[in-house]
Design a protein that fits this description.
By secondary structure, the protein is mostly beta strands. 31% of the residues are buried. The chain is built from no helices and 11 strands. The strands form 2 sheets. Strands 1, 3, 4, 6, 9 and 11 form a 6-stranded antiparallel β-sheet that branches. It has a 5-stranded antiparallel β-sheet with strand order 2-5-10-7-8, with no helix packed on it. It has a single domain, classed as Jelly Rolls (Sandwich).
Length: 181
């Protein structure tokens, strides 16, 4: 058994109806051929609103209901002060093959969202990873016997009273983790 990590390509997110979409951003502080810093892509999630998107990921795992976790690598767009919290949520939907018993695409729905908080470091622009742990009880992030395709929804709930971060949050990477059996 091995832990499998699949990244959600930031540039291929889909907009969620009724939710403010994150804004793609190409970030760099130097420009020109002789620049020593490299550009990188991020998704900007603003404060005070509910913003998010979703991704479709094909997996080749065949297992017995492997738990799925989502890892969000992010940082504050402005230097952090100690204790600022960002409130994240994630939900998945699984579309399998006929042999897996979960193959009805039109009737599939996302599972109940699982929420997690991440605290920004006090270092300016320091990166933070917030993990949203999965489970196999149907009320959390759960998969089924594969192979299957996973719809991953990730959002920041800037309207939640627990989200105390002011300003934009930039996401560098969103990863899906599961155990291959």
């Amino acid at each position: 058994m091995a832990i499998v990590v699949q990244d959600c390509p930031l540039e291929s997110f889909k907009v969620l109806p009724g939710v403010s979409p994150p804004t793609p951003s190409l970030d760099y502080t130097q420009t020109g051929v002789l620049a020593t810093q490299f550009p990188y892509t991020s998704l900007v999630f603003p404060d005070s609103v509910l913003s998010g998107g979703f991704w479709m990921i094909a997996t080749g795992v065949v297992g017995t209901t492997p738990a799925i976790s989502i890892a969000i690598d992010w940082y504050l767009d402005t230097p952090a002060t100690t204790g600022l919290v960002v409130r994240w949520g994630a939900a998945i939907g699984v579309i399998g093959s006929a042999s897996s018993g979960i193959f009805s695409v039109p009737t599939k729905a996302l599972a109940t969202a699982v929420m997690a908080s991440g605290t920004a470091p006090s270092t300016a622009f320091g990166s933070t990873r917030t993990a949203i742990a999965g489970g196999t009880d149907g009320g959390t992030l759960v998969a089924a016997n594969g192979p299957f395709t996973i719809a991953v929804k990730v959002f920041r709930d800037g309207t939640d009273a627990l989200d105390t971060a002011i300003g934009n949050v930039k996401v560098r990477k969103i990863s899906v983790l599961y155990q291959d059996t």
